[in-house]
Amino acid sequence: MSQKSNKSTKKNTISKRNSQKKHHFSSKHSILVIYIVLVAIFIFFSYSFFSSSSESFSGKFSEAFTKTTNLLFFNSGSSGSAQGISSNTLVLDKIEQGYPKLENESEEIETYSGFHLSYNEQHEQANWVAYILTKQMVKNDKAERNDNFRPDENIQTGSATLDDYRGTNYDRGHLAPAADMHWSEKSMDESFLMSNMSPQNQEFNRGIWKTLEEKVRDFAVENERIFVVTGPVLKDISKKIGKNNVSVPKYYYKVILDISQPNFKGIAFLMENQESSKSLTSFAMSIDNLEKFTGIDFFQNVKDSTIAKIEADFNINAWNLN
Fold first, then answer.
1. How far is the CA of 232 from the CAs of 94, 244, 284, 303, in angstroms?
2. Which of 38, 68, 174, 248 has its CA 20 to 30 A from that of 20?
3. Is 174 an annotated catalytic residue?
4. Annotated active-site residue in 24, 29, 123, 174
């Protein structure tokens, strides 16, 4: 081989090594940029939360970290449309049109005047409850809360009972809230059937979960008409209570769909069954992401192609969570 050829080979080798070094530097540089952005966002959220003295340090730290992680790796919170998805063909005016499809769960469908539910005998509670809530319903205070807790005689195999919850330190947590049923005495009364109850941590039920329920009513007023699906996540159950072995869920979810034409939008919430001082935004996600976690196919009976876009769309700024 000639001396000229050897020099050419060496040049090519050096050029290749330099290229590899540049690529390696570029990769390291990208990682460094991501890390800097992550730290910057975390500091921003940390400062926002730590500047208030109303919460504990650990609670603020946890929420700041959760928001930062979600922002970068889960839901940006601003990837969707603030106005929603426009459609002239999507119609969702009956509760049965919005029934979810379950993954390997038994169910008995029961329909009541204000809500429908899917009862799961194995877990002695509903897989889900679904209902339509309007501004007019929220504003109508016709019925007062009656606390008429009782077994649901419509359940063929028998529902859970009040005794199942006594002495357990778990609340009989409404899935379809009584406060959403003020518009009708019958609906209010039916909301206290034990088929509509699930064992909820007391601090959770009376704290962050109640806050979310109140916010859902605000959504109904602000958006005129919404479709709501609520339920426990009946997977990985490690605790049961009472003679009837009522499962204690580790998580609960809510799905809200704004069904006021012509623009539609959706949002989902997933919460751990425990006390929390986090803001509602920490639990918000797209309906698609909730489906991945629960294995439930929401709105599977809706054949309009627009529903897929709504489930994937997520813009937290489209919902008033203040």
1. 23, 17, 16, 26
2. 38
3. yes
4. 174
Tokens of 34: 């991501």
Tens-digit pLDDT string for the chain (322 aa):
544 444 444 444 444 444 444 444 444 445 554 555 565 555 555 544 444 444 444 444 444 444 444 444 344 454 555 667 877 778 888 999 999 999 877 899 999 999 999 999 999 999 999 999 999 999 998 899 999 999 999 999 999 999 999 999 999 999 999 999 999 999 999 999 999 999 999 999 999 999 999 999 999 999 999 999 999 999 999 999 999 999 999 999 999 999 988 789 999 999 999 999 999 999 999 999 999 999 999 999 998 889 999 999 999 999 999 8
Distance CA 85, CA 63 (A): 30
Residue listed under structure tokens 């049965």: 96
Q: Provide φ and ψ at 228, rounded to 5°.
A: -120, 135
- Taking the domains of the chain in order of start, what are their residue ranges? 3-74, 85-318
CA distance 313 to 84: 8
Is residue 75 within 8 Å of 286, Cβ to Cβ?
yes
Beta bridge partners of 267: 256
Work out whether strand 251-258 and strand 246-247 pair parallel, antiparallel, or are unpaired: unpaired
Token pair 């998805």: residue: 85
- Bridge partners of 133? 226
CATH superfamily of the domain spanning 85-318: Extracellular Endonuclease, subunit A (3.40.570.10)
